[in-house]
Amino acid sequence: MQGIQVGNRVVGTQAPVTIGWENIPRVEGGPVKTFIFTWFQPTMLFALVAFWCYAPDSIAKASTAIAIGIAFKLLLLGLEWVNPRHASWRLTWKECATDMFYVGISYTLVRVAEKHLGSDAGIEWMQHLMHWHKLAWFMHLPLLVQAFLISFIFDFGQYWMHRGMHNWYPLWQTHAVHHYITQLNINKGAVGNPVELFLIGLGIGGFFDFVPRAGLLAGSLGLAIGTYQHVNVRFNTPKWWRFLFNTTEHHSLHHSQDYESTRSNYAGSYIFIDRMFGTCIDGEAELLGMEGGRRMSIREQMTFPFHPLIDRVRAWRTPTTAVPAE
Amino acid sequence: MTAPALLAAPTSAPMRAIDWIWRIRGQLPLAPGLGPDAAFARLAPLFDTEGTTLQRHAETLSFRKVHPRAQDPMAVFDAGHLTVHNAQLAYDLNSRALLACCGAPLLFLALAGLLASARTPGEVFAGIFVALYIGGRVLEPWLVKRRFAAALDA
Fold this sequence. Notes:
heterodimer, A: mainly alpha, two-stranded antiparallel ribbon, 4 strands, B: alpha+beta
Protein backbone atom coordinates (compact mmCIF):
# COMPACT_ATOMS: atom_id res chain seq x y z
CA MET A 1 0.00 0.00 0.00
CA GLN A 2 1.40 3.38 -0.98
CA GLY A 3 1.79 5.64 1.99
CA ILE A 4 1.31 9.37 2.52
CA GLN A 5 4.26 11.59 3.40
CA VAL A 6 3.55 13.60 6.56
CA GLY A 7 6.60 15.61 7.59
CA ASN A 8 9.49 13.18 7.84
CA ARG A 9 7.31 10.08 8.17
CA VAL A 10 5.18 7.97 5.83
CA VAL A 11 1.79 6.87 7.16
CA GLY A 12 -0.88 4.62 5.72
CA THR A 13 1.38 1.92 4.30
CA GLN A 14 -0.33 -0.86 6.26
CA ALA A 15 -3.97 0.28 6.42
CA PRO A 16 -6.01 3.08 4.84
CA VAL A 17 -5.91 6.47 6.56
CA THR A 18 -7.18 9.89 5.51
CA ILE A 19 -4.78 12.77 5.97
CA GLY A 20 -5.65 16.47 5.85
CA TRP A 21 -8.87 18.16 6.99
CA GLU A 22 -9.85 18.93 3.40
CA ASN A 23 -10.15 15.18 2.73
CA ILE A 24 -12.35 14.37 5.73
CA PRO A 25 -16.09 14.01 4.99
CA ARG A 26 -18.47 16.68 6.26
CA VAL A 27 -21.84 16.25 7.96
CA GLU A 28 -24.49 15.29 5.42
CA GLY A 29 -28.10 16.46 5.72
CA GLY A 30 -30.28 19.54 5.90
CA PRO A 31 -29.41 22.94 7.38
CA VAL A 32 -30.74 22.12 10.86
CA LYS A 33 -28.68 18.94 11.14
CA THR A 34 -25.59 20.66 9.75
CA PHE A 35 -26.05 23.55 12.19
CA ILE A 36 -26.42 21.23 15.18
CA PHE A 37 -23.41 19.09 14.33
CA THR A 38 -21.28 22.14 13.56
CA TRP A 39 -21.95 24.06 16.77
CA PHE A 40 -22.62 21.27 19.26
CA GLN A 41 -19.04 20.94 20.55
CA PRO A 42 -18.27 24.65 21.22
CA THR A 43 -21.77 25.26 22.58
CA MET A 44 -21.48 22.46 25.12
CA LEU A 45 -17.98 23.57 26.13
CA PHE A 46 -18.97 27.21 26.69
CA ALA A 47 -22.21 26.19 28.43
CA LEU A 48 -20.34 23.98 30.88
CA VAL A 49 -17.67 26.62 31.54
CA ALA A 50 -20.39 29.24 32.13
CA PHE A 51 -22.27 26.88 34.45
CA TRP A 52 -19.28 26.17 36.67
CA CYS A 53 -18.22 29.83 36.70
CA TYR A 54 -21.60 31.23 37.67
CA ALA A 55 -23.65 28.44 39.31
CA PRO A 56 -24.58 29.16 42.95
CA ASP A 57 -22.70 27.20 45.61
CA SER A 58 -25.85 25.25 46.46
CA ILE A 59 -25.64 23.35 43.13
CA ALA A 60 -21.93 23.67 42.25
CA LYS A 61 -20.95 20.39 43.85
CA ALA A 62 -19.57 16.99 42.93
CA SER A 63 -22.97 15.28 42.70
CA THR A 64 -24.03 17.84 40.08
CA ALA A 65 -20.82 17.15 38.14
CA ILE A 66 -21.57 13.41 38.19
CA ALA A 67 -25.14 14.02 36.98
CA ILE A 68 -23.92 16.31 34.19
CA GLY A 69 -21.30 13.73 33.18
CA ILE A 70 -23.89 10.94 32.92
CA ALA A 71 -26.38 13.16 31.06
CA PHE A 72 -23.68 14.33 28.61
CA LYS A 73 -22.61 10.78 27.84
CA LEU A 74 -26.22 9.68 27.34
CA LEU A 75 -26.70 12.61 24.98
CA LEU A 76 -23.61 11.59 22.98
CA LEU A 77 -24.85 8.00 22.93
CA GLY A 78 -28.03 9.33 21.31
CA LEU A 79 -26.03 11.36 18.80
CA GLU A 80 -24.10 8.19 17.89
CA TRP A 81 -27.42 6.77 16.67
CA VAL A 82 -28.54 9.94 14.92
CA ASN A 83 -25.33 10.77 13.09
CA PRO A 84 -22.71 8.01 13.24
CA ARG A 85 -19.28 8.65 11.78
CA HIS A 86 -18.92 5.07 10.52
CA ALA A 87 -21.53 2.29 10.30
CA SER A 88 -18.76 -0.18 11.23
CA TRP A 89 -18.41 1.57 14.60
CA ARG A 90 -22.09 1.18 15.51
CA LEU A 91 -22.55 0.07 19.08
CA THR A 92 -24.09 -3.36 19.56
CA TRP A 93 -25.55 -4.70 22.80
CA LYS A 94 -22.54 -6.97 23.27
CA GLU A 95 -20.06 -4.12 22.76
CA CYS A 96 -22.10 -1.89 25.09
CA ALA A 97 -22.13 -4.56 27.82
CA THR A 98 -18.41 -5.27 27.35
CA ASP A 99 -17.55 -1.56 27.54
CA MET A 100 -19.69 -1.16 30.67
CA PHE A 101 -17.72 -3.94 32.33
CA TYR A 102 -14.53 -1.91 31.89
CA VAL A 103 -16.28 1.26 33.07
CA GLY A 104 -17.41 -0.65 36.16
CA ILE A 105 -13.86 -1.89 36.82
CA SER A 106 -12.60 1.71 36.48
CA TYR A 107 -15.09 2.96 39.06
CA THR A 108 -14.38 0.18 41.54
CA LEU A 109 -11.03 -1.65 41.42
CA VAL A 110 -9.02 1.05 39.64
CA ARG A 111 -10.46 3.84 41.77
CA VAL A 112 -9.62 2.02 44.99
CA ALA A 113 -6.09 1.30 43.72
CA GLU A 114 -5.65 4.96 42.77
CA LYS A 115 -6.81 6.07 46.19
CA HIS A 116 -4.41 3.86 48.10
CA LEU A 117 -1.49 3.46 45.69
CA GLY A 118 -1.92 6.25 43.13
CA SER A 119 -0.38 9.66 42.73
CA ASP A 120 -2.35 11.34 45.51
CA ALA A 121 -1.16 8.75 48.02
CA GLY A 122 2.43 9.12 46.73
CA ILE A 123 2.26 12.91 46.81
CA GLU A 124 0.89 12.88 50.36
CA TRP A 125 3.73 10.57 51.40
CA MET A 126 6.30 12.80 49.70
CA GLN A 127 4.85 15.99 51.26
CA HIS A 128 4.92 14.39 54.66
CA LEU A 129 8.48 13.10 54.22
CA MET A 130 9.87 16.39 52.89
CA HIS A 131 7.69 18.63 55.10
CA TRP A 132 6.29 20.23 51.96
CA HIS A 133 2.99 22.06 51.88
CA LYS A 134 0.59 22.32 49.00
CA LEU A 135 1.28 25.21 46.62
CA ALA A 136 -1.29 27.60 48.07
CA TRP A 137 -0.57 30.46 45.62
CA PHE A 138 -2.40 28.39 43.03
CA MET A 139 -5.66 29.17 44.86
CA HIS A 140 -5.32 32.90 44.21
CA LEU A 141 -5.31 32.54 40.44
CA PRO A 142 -8.56 33.28 38.56
CA LEU A 143 -10.95 30.30 38.58
CA LEU A 144 -10.69 29.61 34.86
CA VAL A 145 -6.89 29.76 34.97
CA GLN A 146 -6.82 27.33 37.88
CA ALA A 147 -9.15 24.96 36.03
CA PHE A 148 -7.15 25.15 32.81
CA LEU A 149 -3.85 24.57 34.62
CA ILE A 150 -5.26 21.57 36.52
CA SER A 151 -6.44 19.94 33.29
CA PHE A 152 -3.34 20.99 31.31
CA ILE A 153 -0.89 19.67 33.92
CA PHE A 154 -2.80 16.38 34.02
CA ASP A 155 -2.94 16.14 30.23
CA PHE A 156 0.75 17.02 29.91
CA GLY A 157 1.62 14.16 32.25
CA GLN A 158 -0.81 11.89 30.44
CA TYR A 159 0.83 12.79 27.10
CA TRP A 160 4.25 11.62 28.30
CA MET A 161 2.87 8.52 30.03
CA HIS A 162 0.96 7.63 26.85
CA ARG A 163 3.98 8.32 24.65
CA GLY A 164 6.08 6.25 27.03
CA MET A 165 3.59 3.41 26.67
CA HIS A 166 4.16 3.45 22.92
CA ASN A 167 7.94 3.46 23.27
CA TRP A 168 8.88 1.28 26.23
CA TYR A 169 7.97 -2.40 26.09
CA PRO A 170 6.89 -2.97 29.74
CA LEU A 171 4.51 -0.01 29.55
CA TRP A 172 3.35 -1.02 26.06
CA GLN A 173 2.31 -4.41 27.42
CA THR A 174 -0.21 -2.65 29.65
CA HIS A 175 -1.47 -0.30 26.93
CA ALA A 176 -1.50 -2.68 23.94
CA VAL A 177 -4.84 -4.20 24.90
CA HIS A 178 -6.57 -0.82 24.50
CA HIS A 179 -5.36 -0.78 20.89
CA TYR A 180 -7.31 -3.94 20.07
CA ILE A 181 -10.58 -1.98 19.98
CA THR A 182 -11.96 -1.72 16.45
CA GLN A 183 -14.64 0.87 17.13
CA LEU A 184 -14.71 4.23 18.88
CA ASN A 185 -17.79 4.57 21.10
CA ILE A 186 -18.62 6.64 24.14
CA ASN A 187 -17.23 4.15 26.68
CA LYS A 188 -14.29 2.75 24.69
CA GLY A 189 -11.91 5.00 26.61
CA ALA A 190 -12.38 2.71 29.60
CA VAL A 191 -11.49 -0.45 27.65
CA GLY A 192 -8.08 -1.57 28.76
CA ASN A 193 -6.13 -3.47 31.33
CA PRO A 194 -6.67 -2.11 34.88
CA VAL A 195 -2.90 -1.64 35.25
CA GLU A 196 -2.91 0.76 32.30
CA LEU A 197 -5.98 2.59 33.59
CA PHE A 198 -4.18 3.02 36.90
CA LEU A 199 -0.99 4.31 35.24
CA ILE A 200 -2.76 6.73 32.91
CA GLY A 201 -4.59 8.20 35.91
CA LEU A 202 -1.36 9.22 37.66
CA GLY A 203 -0.75 12.95 37.96
CA ILE A 204 0.94 15.64 40.00
CA GLY A 205 -2.19 17.72 40.62
CA GLY A 206 -2.05 16.77 44.30
CA PHE A 207 0.89 19.15 44.82
CA PHE A 208 -1.40 22.11 44.19
CA ASP A 209 -4.10 23.54 46.35
CA PHE A 210 -7.10 24.76 44.42
CA VAL A 211 -10.67 25.80 45.10
CA PRO A 212 -13.08 22.85 44.75
CA ARG A 213 -15.02 24.61 42.00
CA ALA A 214 -11.82 24.81 39.93
CA GLY A 215 -11.47 21.03 40.20
CA LEU A 216 -15.07 20.57 39.02
CA LEU A 217 -14.52 23.02 36.16
CA ALA A 218 -11.34 21.16 35.16
CA GLY A 219 -13.36 17.93 35.12
CA SER A 220 -15.88 19.62 32.85
CA LEU A 221 -13.12 20.68 30.46
CA GLY A 222 -12.08 17.04 30.24
CA LEU A 223 -15.71 16.04 29.72
CA ALA A 224 -16.43 18.63 27.03
CA ILE A 225 -13.13 18.09 25.16
CA GLY A 226 -11.57 14.73 25.96
CA THR A 227 -14.77 12.71 25.59
CA TYR A 228 -14.69 13.17 21.81
CA GLN A 229 -11.61 10.95 21.57
CA HIS A 230 -13.84 7.89 21.62
CA VAL A 231 -17.15 8.87 20.03
CA ASN A 232 -18.84 7.62 16.88
CA VAL A 233 -20.35 10.94 15.84
CA ARG A 234 -19.59 12.97 12.71
CA PHE A 235 -19.11 16.66 13.53
CA ASN A 236 -18.03 19.62 11.45
CA THR A 237 -15.52 20.54 14.12
CA PRO A 238 -14.42 24.21 13.90
CA LYS A 239 -10.84 24.87 12.74
CA TRP A 240 -9.78 26.52 15.99
CA TRP A 241 -11.12 23.55 17.98
CA ARG A 242 -9.24 20.91 16.01
CA PHE A 243 -6.07 23.03 16.20
CA LEU A 244 -6.25 23.18 20.02
CA PHE A 245 -8.17 20.10 21.07
CA ASN A 246 -8.08 16.37 20.45
CA THR A 247 -10.85 15.13 18.16
CA THR A 248 -12.30 11.78 17.15
CA GLU A 249 -10.39 12.19 13.88
CA HIS A 250 -7.04 12.55 15.67
CA HIS A 251 -7.72 9.65 17.99
CA SER A 252 -9.02 7.34 15.27
CA LEU A 253 -5.71 7.82 13.49
CA HIS A 254 -3.95 6.92 16.74
CA HIS A 255 -5.99 3.67 16.82
CA SER A 256 -5.47 2.90 13.13
CA GLN A 257 -4.29 -0.52 11.96
CA ASP A 258 -1.39 1.40 10.39
CA TYR A 259 1.54 1.21 12.82
CA GLU A 260 3.15 4.53 11.90
CA SER A 261 -0.17 6.36 12.39
CA THR A 262 -0.53 4.97 15.91
CA ARG A 263 2.66 6.79 16.85
CA SER A 264 0.87 10.13 16.80
CA ASN A 265 -1.76 12.14 18.71
CA TYR A 266 -0.94 11.03 22.25
CA ALA A 267 -2.62 13.84 24.21
CA GLY A 268 -5.95 13.26 25.89
CA SER A 269 -7.58 16.68 25.57
CA TYR A 270 -5.07 19.24 24.27
CA ILE A 271 -3.76 18.24 20.84
CA PHE A 272 -1.54 21.34 20.86
CA ILE A 273 0.74 19.36 23.20
CA ASP A 274 1.30 16.97 20.28
CA ARG A 275 1.87 19.96 18.01
CA MET A 276 4.48 21.27 20.48
CA PHE A 277 6.40 18.00 20.36
CA GLY A 278 5.91 17.17 16.66
CA THR A 279 3.68 14.13 17.14
CA CYS A 280 0.41 15.54 15.79
CA ILE A 281 -1.07 14.26 12.54
CA ASP A 282 -4.35 15.75 11.32
CA GLY A 283 -6.43 13.00 9.78
CA GLU A 284 -8.70 10.04 10.51
CA ALA A 285 -9.03 6.29 10.05
CA GLU A 286 -11.94 3.86 10.04
CA LEU A 287 -10.08 0.54 10.19
CA LEU A 288 -8.87 0.29 13.76
CA GLY A 289 -7.21 -2.31 15.92
CA MET A 290 -4.25 -4.65 16.04
CA GLU A 291 -3.44 -7.90 14.23
CA GLY A 292 -5.80 -7.02 11.41
CA GLY A 293 -8.66 -6.16 13.77
CA ARG A 294 -8.66 -9.30 15.92
CA ARG A 295 -11.03 -9.00 18.88
CA MET A 296 -9.40 -9.58 22.23
CA SER A 297 -11.53 -11.24 24.88
CA ILE A 298 -11.93 -9.75 28.37
CA ARG A 299 -9.95 -12.66 29.82
CA GLU A 300 -7.02 -12.02 27.48
CA GLN A 301 -7.18 -8.28 28.15
CA MET A 302 -6.92 -8.91 31.87
CA THR A 303 -3.87 -11.18 31.62
CA PHE A 304 -2.07 -9.73 28.57
CA PRO A 305 0.47 -7.52 30.42
CA PHE A 306 1.60 -10.54 32.40
CA HIS A 307 2.04 -12.88 29.41
CA PRO A 308 5.84 -12.37 29.14
CA LEU A 309 6.17 -13.14 32.85
CA ILE A 310 3.91 -16.19 32.58
CA ASP A 311 5.87 -17.41 29.55
CA ARG A 312 9.15 -17.06 31.45
CA VAL A 313 7.84 -18.99 34.42
CA ARG A 314 6.53 -21.71 32.08
CA ALA A 315 9.88 -21.90 30.27
CA TRP A 316 11.69 -22.08 33.61
CA ARG A 317 9.42 -24.89 34.85
CA THR A 318 9.63 -26.88 31.62
CA PRO A 319 12.62 -29.23 31.82
CA THR A 320 14.87 -28.88 28.79
CA THR A 321 15.77 -32.08 27.02
CA ALA A 322 19.42 -32.45 26.13
CA VAL A 323 20.00 -33.40 22.51
CA PRO A 324 23.09 -35.56 22.05
CA ALA A 325 25.58 -34.29 19.53
CA GLU A 326 25.91 -36.46 16.45
CA MET B 1 -15.48 -30.12 24.27
CA THR B 2 -14.92 -26.39 23.77
CA ALA B 3 -16.97 -23.83 25.66
CA PRO B 4 -19.23 -22.81 22.72
CA ALA B 5 -19.85 -26.45 21.81
CA LEU B 6 -20.59 -27.23 25.43
CA LEU B 7 -23.10 -24.40 25.56
CA ALA B 8 -24.71 -25.60 22.34
CA ALA B 9 -25.04 -29.21 23.43
CA PRO B 10 -28.54 -30.60 23.98
CA THR B 11 -29.58 -29.99 27.56
CA SER B 12 -31.32 -32.07 30.17
CA ALA B 13 -34.74 -31.12 31.58
CA PRO B 14 -33.39 -29.41 34.75
CA MET B 15 -30.91 -27.50 32.62
CA ARG B 16 -33.66 -26.30 30.31
CA ALA B 17 -35.22 -24.59 33.31
CA ILE B 18 -32.27 -22.20 33.55
CA ASP B 19 -30.61 -22.23 30.15
CA TRP B 20 -32.98 -19.51 28.90
CA ILE B 21 -30.48 -17.24 30.61
CA TRP B 22 -27.95 -17.72 27.80
CA ARG B 23 -29.94 -19.61 25.20
CA ILE B 24 -32.28 -18.12 22.62
CA ARG B 25 -34.75 -20.36 20.88
CA GLY B 26 -37.28 -19.43 18.25
CA GLN B 27 -39.13 -20.39 15.12
CA LEU B 28 -39.97 -18.74 11.83
CA PRO B 29 -42.42 -19.93 9.18
CA LEU B 30 -40.82 -20.51 5.78
CA ALA B 31 -42.30 -19.62 2.42
CA PRO B 32 -44.03 -22.60 0.76
CA GLY B 33 -41.53 -24.75 -1.10
CA LEU B 34 -38.47 -23.29 0.61
CA GLY B 35 -36.37 -26.32 1.50
CA PRO B 36 -33.26 -26.57 3.69
CA ASP B 37 -30.82 -25.93 0.80
CA ALA B 38 -32.55 -22.74 -0.33
CA ALA B 39 -33.20 -21.50 3.21
CA PHE B 40 -29.60 -22.00 4.34
CA ALA B 41 -28.33 -20.41 1.13
CA ARG B 42 -30.34 -17.28 1.96
CA LEU B 43 -29.06 -17.28 5.55
CA ALA B 44 -25.43 -17.88 4.50
CA PRO B 45 -24.44 -14.17 4.29
CA LEU B 46 -25.23 -13.79 8.01
CA PHE B 47 -22.53 -16.33 8.79
CA ASP B 48 -20.00 -15.14 6.23
CA THR B 49 -17.88 -13.44 8.89
CA GLU B 50 -14.39 -13.95 10.25
CA GLY B 51 -14.16 -16.47 13.07
CA THR B 52 -17.35 -18.29 12.09
CA THR B 53 -17.32 -21.96 11.11
CA LEU B 54 -20.33 -23.80 9.71
CA GLN B 55 -21.30 -27.43 9.65
CA ARG B 56 -24.22 -28.75 7.62
CA HIS B 57 -25.93 -32.02 8.37
CA ALA B 58 -29.13 -32.78 6.43
CA GLU B 59 -31.77 -30.35 7.76
CA THR B 60 -29.51 -28.79 10.37
CA LEU B 61 -26.93 -26.04 10.09
CA SER B 62 -24.59 -25.62 13.06
CA PHE B 63 -22.27 -22.69 13.56
CA ARG B 64 -19.53 -21.69 15.93
CA LYS B 65 -17.88 -18.33 16.44
CA VAL B 66 -14.46 -17.74 17.93
CA HIS B 67 -13.65 -14.15 18.91
CA PRO B 68 -16.19 -12.65 16.48
CA ARG B 69 -15.50 -9.08 15.49
CA ALA B 70 -17.39 -6.13 16.91
CA GLN B 71 -18.73 -5.53 13.39
CA ASP B 72 -20.31 -9.00 13.22
CA PRO B 73 -24.06 -8.43 13.79
CA MET B 74 -24.37 -11.96 15.22
CA ALA B 75 -21.31 -11.61 17.47
CA VAL B 76 -23.40 -12.02 20.60
CA PHE B 77 -23.83 -15.73 19.77
CA ASP B 78 -20.98 -18.23 20.17
CA ALA B 79 -22.69 -21.29 18.74
CA GLY B 80 -26.07 -22.52 17.59
CA HIS B 81 -28.19 -24.83 15.50
CA LEU B 82 -30.69 -23.93 12.80
CA THR B 83 -33.09 -26.59 11.60
CA VAL B 84 -35.47 -26.51 8.66
CA HIS B 85 -38.35 -28.90 9.13
CA ASN B 86 -42.04 -28.89 8.22
CA ALA B 87 -41.80 -25.49 6.49
CA GLN B 88 -40.34 -23.91 9.61
CA LEU B 89 -36.94 -22.61 10.63
CA ALA B 90 -36.19 -23.46 14.24
CA TYR B 91 -33.12 -21.98 15.88
CA ASP B 92 -31.32 -22.59 19.13
CA LEU B 93 -28.56 -20.06 19.83
CA ASN B 94 -26.13 -19.71 22.70
CA SER B 95 -24.58 -16.59 24.07
CA ARG B 96 -21.77 -16.49 26.58
CA ALA B 97 -22.12 -12.70 26.55
CA LEU B 98 -25.66 -12.99 27.96
CA LEU B 99 -24.45 -15.50 30.55
CA ALA B 100 -21.55 -13.26 31.59
CA CYS B 101 -23.82 -10.21 31.75
CA CYS B 102 -26.24 -12.15 33.96
CA GLY B 103 -23.37 -13.01 36.32
CA ALA B 104 -21.79 -9.53 36.29
CA PRO B 105 -24.08 -8.09 39.02
CA LEU B 106 -22.73 -10.73 41.41
CA LEU B 107 -19.17 -9.68 40.62
CA PHE B 108 -19.91 -6.02 41.29
CA LEU B 109 -21.86 -6.81 44.44
CA ALA B 110 -18.85 -8.83 45.60
CA LEU B 111 -16.56 -5.87 44.87
CA ALA B 112 -18.97 -3.60 46.76
CA GLY B 113 -18.73 -5.91 49.75
CA LEU B 114 -14.97 -6.39 49.60
CA LEU B 115 -13.89 -2.82 48.88
CA ALA B 116 -15.38 -0.40 51.40
CA SER B 117 -14.74 2.68 49.24
CA ALA B 118 -16.27 1.00 46.18
CA ARG B 119 -19.57 0.18 47.83
CA THR B 120 -21.77 2.70 46.04
CA PRO B 121 -20.23 2.28 42.54
CA GLY B 122 -20.24 -1.49 43.01
CA GLU B 123 -23.95 -1.49 43.80
CA VAL B 124 -24.72 0.97 41.00
CA PHE B 125 -22.91 -1.18 38.44
CA ALA B 126 -24.63 -4.31 39.73
CA GLY B 127 -27.92 -2.52 38.99
CA ILE B 128 -26.68 -1.37 35.58
CA PHE B 129 -25.81 -4.94 34.63
CA VAL B 130 -29.21 -6.23 35.74
CA ALA B 131 -30.78 -3.62 33.43
CA LEU B 132 -28.30 -4.46 30.65
CA TYR B 133 -29.07 -8.16 30.94
CA ILE B 134 -32.83 -7.62 30.77
CA GLY B 135 -32.34 -5.27 27.82
CA GLY B 136 -30.11 -7.76 26.00
CA ARG B 137 -32.35 -10.73 26.73
CA VAL B 138 -35.30 -8.86 25.18
CA LEU B 139 -33.41 -7.10 22.37
CA GLU B 140 -31.24 -9.90 20.98
CA PRO B 141 -34.03 -12.46 20.34
CA TRP B 142 -35.99 -9.73 18.56
CA LEU B 143 -32.98 -8.66 16.49
CA VAL B 144 -31.98 -12.17 15.47
CA LYS B 145 -35.55 -13.05 14.49
CA ARG B 146 -35.71 -9.89 12.38
CA ARG B 147 -32.34 -10.70 10.74
CA PHE B 148 -33.35 -14.27 9.92
CA ALA B 149 -36.73 -13.12 8.56
CA ALA B 150 -35.11 -10.42 6.41
CA ALA B 151 -32.53 -12.87 5.03
CA LEU B 152 -35.19 -15.48 4.25
CA ASP B 153 -37.37 -12.89 2.50
CA ALA B 154 -34.50 -11.64 0.37
